Amino acid sequence: MKMAAPTASKAASLGCNNKPTFPELDFRSGARVEELNKLIQEFTKHDQREYDDQRALEIHTAKDFIFSMLGMVQKLDQKLPVANEYLLLSGGVREGVVDLDLDELNVYARGTDYDMDFTLLVPALKLHDRNQPVTLDMRHSALCHSWLSLRLFDEGTISKWKDCCTIVDHINGATNYFFSPTKVADWFYDSISIVLSEIQKKPQRGMPKVEKVEKNGTIISIILGVGSSRMLYDIVPVVSFKGWPAVAQSWLMENHFWDGKITEEEVISGFYLVPACSYKGKKDNEWRLSFARSEVQLKKCISSSLMQAYQACKAIIIKLLSRPKAISPYHLRSMMLWACDRLPANYLAQEDYAAHFLLGLIDDLQHCLVNKMCPNYFIPQCNMLEHLSEETVMLHARKLSSVRSDPAEHLRTTIEHVKAANRLTLELQRRGSATSIPSPQSDGGDPNQPDDRLAKKLQQLVTENPGKSISVFINPDDVTRPHFRIDDKFF
Questions:
Q1: 191 in Cβ contact with 76 (< 8 Å)
Q2: Which of 37, 107, 424, 491 is most buried, by the most CB atoms less than 10 A from its CB?
Q3: Where is the Mab-21-like HhH/H2TH-like domain (predicted)?
């Protein structure tokens, strides 16, 4: 005799639908998603430190010292613009805040060499006339790169900078001066060295101690000791433009994750040429397009959980893929921006999805390596991995495979690294607390009684605006009164 299958209602009453509940697992590694989320949160807690009033004042003192130094550089030979606009970014060049090559940089480690790091873009030249079309000479360069002819500028500018140019004579007898990133960097390093030498001949109370000045390729790295803090400034000479380059015009025609959240005018307010060349480019002539100002605006539209995953993933790859220097944290940043365009905003806004985002970023990076393809976000036709050898990309892909197989263990290792760096910082602070250098604002008074109003303002500027653009408008004849702009707000 055949028996009929129980109906759905009977099956439910018999308990046939009682499925065991399992924790959410990552299929590839078997890691519990909940555990990965907790590890990412722990990393974020140790990586994002809060600063007290004394530390905020030390940050302010270091910033004032750097800007005063740049004012003196301008006075040496009047090469730099008198009224300049700097872009101050949280994080050093090694953190991928700007698209620069890392293979020429000396290795600095947080905790061992410095406690906080910043990147400062300093325009050597500005082309800020919006009515003048941005004309870049890309005939001799790879995508995302350009030569810069000083014919775009007046005779006075050419006269000041021609010793930092390469000269090309044409058949018709005309002479063309091309702004040289290597010669500009050499001049900048020499000028900074002269100024620092003069400053150190007449030390003042509360003045930061210059612990290190190094030229790393075309970047000048300065480590300052201020009180109990050590601050790394990566100073980058750039060419600043208003508007948008024609080579990136088609990018504006596409749909993007930031549409409707910020205006197009905010995104395309300006771009830079930074001193870096393509793999086969001519180092003396070639500059790289940088959209650092636009990236600061775009970061305002990225969810906190995705940013936490990005920071954790970046910390893992900086350690894991450090040799050979092929993958930069900037590549990971580009992949994150592409993911924002690809995935629904409500999915990326999930607060408890940091683990999914971390695993996805690792997958994306591995995919890019295996296919040797990482498009620049603003100029997609530019493949930033095109020059890598098959051997190099497969070596890094295999390393990433080990991370993907056990992400929890790599997160734990990364957490231990950041905790060790914090312990080194705290130990140095304890040693220096008895001999803390007073802030210049204290006028020789009690250094333990800082100006509360100033400290609160500085904390707002530095600690409450992670990743935001801090522009400083400064007159070298009065460096005591800088004007700050955080994104579109003035202080």
A1: yes
A2: 37
A3: 325-400
